[in-house]
UniProtKB/TrEMBL annotation:
Gene3D superfamilies: MoaB/Mog-like domain, Spore Coat Polysaccharide Biosynthesis Protein SpsA, Chain A. This is NTP transferase domain-containing protein. It comes from the Bacteria. The keyword 4Fe-4S does not apply. It comes from Aromatoleum bremense. Residues 329-354 are annotated as: Disordered. Keywords: Magnesium, Transferase. Residues 329-342 have a biased composition (Acidic residues).
Length: 564
């Protein structure tokens, strides 16, 4: 490229270095001059222009910027280029996610030549859809093609930037308490946690509360896992001071492992990262009760984008780990908490326009085939069977949770005392399941569009199963929604409101089976590749099989397939 002053008479093909204005006309910088421009310049008395003329093998700034920007990304990186302008080409995120940058190779590109300047968002920054995540600027008007080839060689190992999608997660918050703690502390923690998760596209699905004791926290961790939550947050009454402190010890007792204790980030030093099976568990630092940015935010962003940090990842956060953010609106824990926003209300009101589906858990049976024990109170995976069902409903997108009790109602009620579910007594429980349906339907809120019926003796049903059934319900074309596998019908089943009267009129212990058969043309089946929709416990032998199947299923997911 030749840069300098050119006589106007010989400036055809020269790109202007600066904007020229004369005689009411403007020629913008970067314009490639043509004969008509030169005639106007001569008329205006301009004898020379400052600009650049491309040499053989040069690539103009816009084309060069576009070619280099294309080298940064690739298929499935969730970032794409847009048309270049004035020597610049930007990459934009195609979805909300966490930015991953190959820092070493970006540095190598920038060190090649001063003509190429590449800037990106910081490593692991959160990007919104359409946001610029990287920019390539060609400093001069053109670069030699050999420089682009040198860039291509560095980029040949694969994309240098991607946006890891922030995927929605169902999250549980466990809070432990000591005598004398104010309710505003717990309400504020719930509000701050919900705010934090909502901003990342996830949902606070289940809130549990217990005494600050190892055994109590262990039980809560087991409950959160049994409900189907995909991330567990533990906010202790006191922060953990050691791997053997109460909260870390509870996670370990629940079958977990401590991945790392502490982080070189302030605020956030006392965070503990753990796992139980494949589910991440984060023991929150004290600052996690606040909405101010802290180390918890950095860890959550990565976990929710599928970028689980290693010990080394965490220990490399020290440079830049001194966070000094301004006070955000409605910040202090407890100051902005809504009245009653405590352990009984994990989820915000349903989204406008979303169907309101109530969950109805049938837990009134006498469990006569189990023997002397009430099967609903037997622990499976450390959690009473009825509580597993109720927490699965609580952690789902159901608008409310109602439980029908009958046999040993007081004991069942005690097991559900902190669940926040509405308990309905069925004095006629000896007449069979139909009586529980009748009492349960009568107790449902008036403003719901449908009900999903869960059985209290199906210990492997989680919020994921419930949500899949709810998601298949279309209030504009209401159908009975039923999960199935290999053509075999399972539970739970969703019923539109129009069937409530018929459900209330059913007799005997067969539930609504006859109603399904009579309305076969109104049934919508969804395929779920998971035996959980069949696994119930009626006899002592079923219990051992349920425990075994629970262990076998702990490392696998469910695969949903469309069914016509």
């Amino acid at each position: 490229m030749i840069f300098g002053e050119f006589d106007t008479d010989a400036a055809a093909g020269v790109m202007l270095a600066h904007t020229l204005k004369a005689g009411g006309r403007t020629l913008k910088k970067g314009r490639t001059l043509v004969d008509a421009d030169l005639a106007w310049l001569r008329e205006a008395g301009i004898d020379t222009v400052l600009g650049a003329r491309l040499a053989p093998g040069d690539v103009a700034e816009d084309a060069a910027a576009a070619q280099i920007a294309a080298l940064l990304t690739g298929p499935d990186t969730n970032a794409a280029t847009r048309p270049p302008y004035t020597g610049r080409c930007n990459l934009h995120a195609s979805l909300r996610g966490v930015v991953q940058v190959d820092i070493e190779r970006i540095d190598r590109l920038n060190l090649l030549d001063e003509a190429v300047a590449i800037g990106t968002l910081p490593q692991h920054a959160v990007a919104r859809p359409g946001q610029v995540v990287a920019t390539v600027k060609i400093i001069p008007f053109a670069v030699p093609a050999s420089l682009i080839e040198a860039c291509r060689e560095i980029a040949s190992a694969g994309p240098l930037l991607r946006v890891a999608e922030l995927k929605p997660h169902r999250v549980a918050l466990i809070m432990s308490e000591l005598p004398g703690m104010k309710e505003s502390i717990f309400a504020g923690t719930v509000a701050a946690t919900r705010h934090r998760l909502d901003a990342l596209g996830s949902r606070l699905a289940l809130v549990l509360r217990c005494a600050h004791e190892r055994a109590a926290l262990e039980a809560m961790v087991r409950q959160a896992l049994a409900s189907g939550c995909e991330l567990v947050l533990v906010c202790g009454a006191t922060v953990a001071k050691d791997r053997n402190d109460i909260a870390p010890a509870a996670v370990t007792a629940a079958g977990g492992r401590i991945d790392h204790f502490g982080m070189p980030v302030e605020p956030g030093n006392m965070l503990v990262l753990a796992h139980v099976g494949s589910v991440p568990v984060v023991i929150m630092p004290g600052c996690g009760r606040s909405r101010r940015t802290n180390g918890l935010d950095w860890v959550l962003q990565r976990l929710l984008a599928g970028l689980a940090p290693t010990r080394e990842d965490i220990m490399r956060l020290g440079v830049g780990g001194l966070i000094r953010s301004p006070l955000e609106a409605e910040d202090a824990a407890g100051e902005d908490a809504e009245d009653g926003d405590s352990e009984g209300s994990a989820a915000p009101p349903p989204r406008p326009g979303a169907p309101r589906v109530a969950a109805l858990v049938l837990a009134a049976g006498q469990s006569s085939r189990m023997g002397a024990a009430n099967k609903l109170l037997i622990e499976v995976g450390g959690v009473p069977m009825v509580l597993r069902a109720v927490n699965a409903a609580r952690a789902s997108r159901a608008a409310s949770v109602t439980v029908v009790v009958g046999h040993e109602a007081e004991a069942v009620g005690t097991a559900l005392a902190t669940s926040g579910a509405t308990l309905v007594d069925n004095p006629d429980h000896a007449q069979g399941m139909s009586s529980s349906l009748r009492h349960g339907i009568a107790a449902l809120p008036d403003d719901i569009d449908a009900v999903i019926v869960l059985l209290g003796d199906m210990p492997r049903i989680t919020a994921e199963h419930v949500d899949r059934v709810i998601a298949a319900f279309d209030p504009a074309a209401p159908s009975i929604v039923m999960p199935e596998k290999d053509g075999r019908r399972g539970n739970p089943i969703l019923w539109p409101r129009e069937f409530f009267a018929a459900m209330a009129g059913i007799c005997g212990d067969q539930g609504a089976r006859g109603l399904i058969e009579h309305n076969a043309d109104r049934v919508k089946r969804i395929a779920i590749d998971d035996d959980a929709i069949f696994v119930d416990v009626d006899r002592p032998g079923d219990l051992a099989q349920a425990e075994a199947s629970l262990v076998a299923a702990s490392g696998s997911g469910m695969v949903e397939e469309p069914v016509t």
